[in-house]
Amino acid sequence: xxxxxxxxxxxxxxxxxxxxxxxxxxxxxxxxxxxxxxxxxxxxxxxxxxxxxxxxxxxxxxxxxxxxxxxxxxxxxxxxxxxxxxxxxxxxxxxxxxxxxxxxxxxxxxxxxxxxxxxxxxxxxxxxxxxxxxxxxxxxxxxxxxxxxxxxxxxxxxxxxxxxxxxxxxxxxxxxxxxxxxxxxxxxxxxxxxxxxxxxxxxxxxxxxxxxxxxxxxxxxxxxxxxxxxxxxxxxxxxxxxxxxxxxxxxxxxxxxxxxxxxxxxxxxxxxxx
Length: 274
Description:
Blueprint: H1 2-9, H2 20-38, E1 45-49, H3 55-64, E2 69-73, H4 86-94, E3 102-105, E4 124-128, H5 137-147, E5 153-159, H6 169-184, H7 198-207, E6 211-218, H8 225-239, H9 244-257, E7 267-273
Parallel strand pairs: 1-2, 1-4, 2-3, 4-5
Antiparallel strand pairs: 5-7, 6-7
Helix pairs in contact: 1-2, 2-3, 6-8, 6-9, 8-9
């Protein structure tokens, strides 16, 4: 496993900081654990929605082998992202040994229509740490309805809102504050918009006569995501145009968040079957 982890990590484009490889290695290890929870098999044809800079895409491409293929979809433009843009990260990945197993489409919203994947069929569709970016549970349900035309099931992975340790509460509070602020003052700068949980997914499945099956929990508190979300939450107070009264009401929540740890939440996995 360690050899495979280092192999995939070394295929990724790295930022300019001295610890960039260490951070990337933790992110890659987390995606390997998610792929294992999903039981991804060689030869599969996979569609990944919310592929970002390709962290999971690279893991999946390695997992499916030369007979498989991974298509990445992201709603963002190629110049989005820092310190590396999506296009920089993906151009590096596509130029490597996994490049012939990968395809990517930016500026693509499959909730609108199937666009570049129309008339294709996939062994599975996957979303990892992208469920909270949806504006509402209804928006996610609409995407799932479209996915029913191209696959039999969707595998998901997202942060669990049930902390398993006290030092994960800061991450939880950051997510809850961001979700609350988006509900009060919707904005494009918001990172987290809707806190999708297993109960949300079960309700979506019930409403559409699908099935939701809970998977395993993936624990990795050393990930940097809690740090990033806490920093993002603090920055939102200055970026959003909030009233003075609302700003004053949010400040105590930020203060509490800053004292409740920086360990990342566990990740739940699950499957929607159409």
